[in-house]
Amino acid sequence: MLGALLGGAALSQNLSVLNVATGSKGGTYATMYKNLGDLCTSASWLRERQTSGSVENVDLLLSNEVSLAFVQLDVLKARDQIDGDPRAKAIRVLLPLHQEEIHLIAKPPTKGFLGRLSGATRFSELGNKSVGAWGGSVVTANVLRAKAGVNFNVKVYPTRDAALAALAGGQIDAVLAVVGQPADWVKALSPQQYVLLPLDVAADKVSAFYQPAKLIYPAFGASVPTYSVQSLLVTRDFKTPEKRAQLLKYQACAKAKLTRLQEDEGMHPKWNDVTFKSSGWPDYK
């Protein structure tokens, strides 16, 4: 039936360009979108819109400015369960993707008067301190603060660079970033100037949103306990036959080409974590 939908010349003339909200240039979402485009001819119907991340992407999707968006699952859950936005229930998962790890970055603690340490060595020590975040990481920071009961101040920045500059300048105590590892920009940080803090939160407090994970960056020493959240490529519950055909062809191609996405040189390493299994959010069918 899908082949019939896609086979007619009349349909091919009526195919519309669909906008896809990804993320920052060179980021995981933008790279994985490009990888899909390299293998799926149906991607010729898609046009990338780079954004600040999951929060903006959900807003763009719900306001009908894009037809697809890469988002974090916790951002969708927060929009539905915390914000009570009824429009969230119309979002559907086209492709369940990889897990994205929570990176908590700080400067190494320093010794002050009488040898007292200043700074934090773990998440639980961030009470009454300031944590910078941007995009979907802002939602993650607020969810963790509420669930873990660690009362830090979340400072919102427009971009990753702005948050890192604030950390470098001593305006905040840590940066919280949700990004699939290994992130090139994290690998580029100097281990003499920055540390990765363990996310020491009891699993039962956050299991509805996150699952345990490890950060592995050899330059920063041993693996660091953290949590991860699933990333998704989502769309709205479109009914138009032509648009459904486009979306389902793109979905089918991605699933058929998963092995190549995992094994071809140059593909993002996070494809190796993708199984396309259900995310716990309604699928697009």
UniProtKB/TrEMBL annotation:
Gene3D superfamilies with a match to the protein in the record: Periplasmic binding protein-like II
InterPro entries (UniProt xref): TRAP_TAXI
Pfam annotation, one family: NMT1_3
PANTHER family noted in UniProt: SLL1037 PROTEIN
Name of the protein: TRAP transporter substrate-binding protein
